[in-house]
Amino acid sequence: MEKSAAGSRARLGVIALTVLIDLIGFGIVIPILPGYAVRFGAHGFEFGALLGVYSLMQFFASALFGRLSDRIGRRPVLLSTMLLNAGGYLLFALAGSYRMLFLSRVIAGFAGGNISAAQAYVADSTSPAERSRGMGMIGAAFGIGFVIGPALGGLAAHYIGPAAPGLVAAGLSLANFVSAWTILPESLRAEHRSERRGLGFAAIARGLADPTLRPLMLLWGIFPFAFAGYTAALPLHALALFGWHDKELGLFFAVFGLTGALVQGVLFGRLARRFGERLLVIAGTAGVAVAIGAVPLAHSSLLLYGWTVVLALSQGLVSPGASGLVSVYASPSEQGTTLGAAQALGAFGRCLGPFAIGKSYDALGARAAFLAAAGVMIIAWLATLQLRQEPVHSKQDLPRLDV
Q1: Are the beta carbons of 265 and 19 closer than 8 angstroms?
Q2: What CATH number does the domain containing 367 carry?
Q3: Predicted TM-score (pTM) of this structure
Q4: I need a surface site. Which of 24, 258, 300, 361 has the fewest CB within 10 A?
Q5: Cβ distance 297 to 386 under 8 Å?
Q6: Contacts of residue 340, Cβ cutoff 8 Å, sequence gap at least 6
C-alpha cells in the first residue's frame, strides 16, 4: 500500500514538473522582453505578439493533444511534447533576432499544449472528490512556474547573459523527459479510450452548447484574455513609471507566482471543502477584476505590490476551481477532449489579450489599457454567476495529496 502511494506521488510529481516547465516557458520572457523590444526595435505590439503567439500555438495544440490523448493515451503525448519543449528553449537561447525569438515562442507554445493531456492524467488518477485538489496541485505548479520563469529570465539575463535562461529551461525539459520515461505509466484505461478523430475543436462547440459547461467555457476564454493583457501591459507600465528592468520585474513576478502557488497548493483544498469550487471561482474572478482596475491608481511600488498580492490570491482560487469543475462534469472517455477544449479557449484568450491590451497601451496609455482589461474581467465574473452548483461528491472531505 505504501509502495503504491509512493508511486502515485511520484507520477503526480512528474505531471507537476511538466506543467511547471510549461509555465517557465510562458513566464521566462516576461521580464527580459522589454530589453529585447529595445534591442530588436520592437514596441508594445511586437512585445504583445511574443506573448500572444505562444498562446495562439497553445490554442491549436491544446485541443489537438487533448483529443489525441483520449485516443492513444496520455504518455506518448506528454513524452513527445517534452522533447519539443527542449528544442524550443534551445532556439530561444540562440536567438539573435526578433524573428528567431518569435519562432522559438511558436515551438514552445505548441509544446505547451500538453497541459490538456497533463490535466487529463490527473483526472484519470483521482476520484471526482479529489479532483479539484489534484487540479490545485497543477495550479500550484503554474504558480511556481510563474515564480521560476520570470525570476530565471530576469536574474540569469542580468548576471549571466541572454542565452542562459533558454539553456537552463532546455535542460529542465530534458530532465522532465527522462523522469517521465522512467516513472510515468499510461493512466488511460482501455475501456475509456475514444475512437473519435480530428483536431478536437468540435468539443468547444459542444461545451458552449451544454448548459452546464457553457459558463465554464466562457470563463476559460474571457478570463485569460484579460489576465494576459494585464501581463503584457504591466512590464511596460512599471518600466515607464518606476524604471524597473530585468531584476526588478523578475522579483515582482516571483512574488506574484509564489503567492498564487501557496493559495493553490495549500489553501485551495481547505477552502473548497468549506465553500465549494463555484463560490471560490466567483469570488476569485471578482477579486482579479478589482486588482487589475486598481493598477493605474498605484503610484508607488509598495501599492503596486499590494494590489498584485490581491490579484495573485484571487487568481489562485479561479484556476484550480474552474479546472476541477470542467473535469467533474466531463465523461471519463472525454476527459482529455473536454479539458483540451477549455485549455484551447484559454490559450485563445491569452493569444488575443496581449495583442489587444498591448495595442491599447500604445494608443491610449496605461490607464485605458488596465481599465479595459478590468472591464473584460467583469464580463468573466458575470459568466461565473451562471455556474451551476457542483455535484455533492466534489465537496466531500478531500484527502491530502502528498506530492
Answers
A1: no
A2: 1.20.1250.20
A3: 0.69
A4: 300
A5: no
A6: 62, 63, 64, 65, 66, 67, 69, 116, 117, 120, 200, 203
Cα–Cα distances (Å) from 197 to 56, 202, 203, 340, in that order, read 22, 11, 12, 14
- Encode pLDDT of 27-58 as tens digits: 676 666 666 656 776 666 777 677 668 777 87
Q: Say how many residues make up the chain.
A: 403
**CA count, 13 A, side-chain hemisphere, 57:** 24
Give tens-digit pLDDT for 286-333: 999 999 988 888 888 888 888 888 988 898 888 878 877 777 776 666
CA 95/CA 374 separation, integer angstroms: 34
Q: In which residue are the cell numbers 471519463 written?
A: 332
For residues 384 and 375, give the distance between their C-alpha atoms in angstroms, rounded to a whole number: 15
Q: How many domains does the chain have?
A: 1
Computed on alpha carbons and rounded to an integer, the radius of gyration of the chain in Å comes to 19
SS3 245: coil
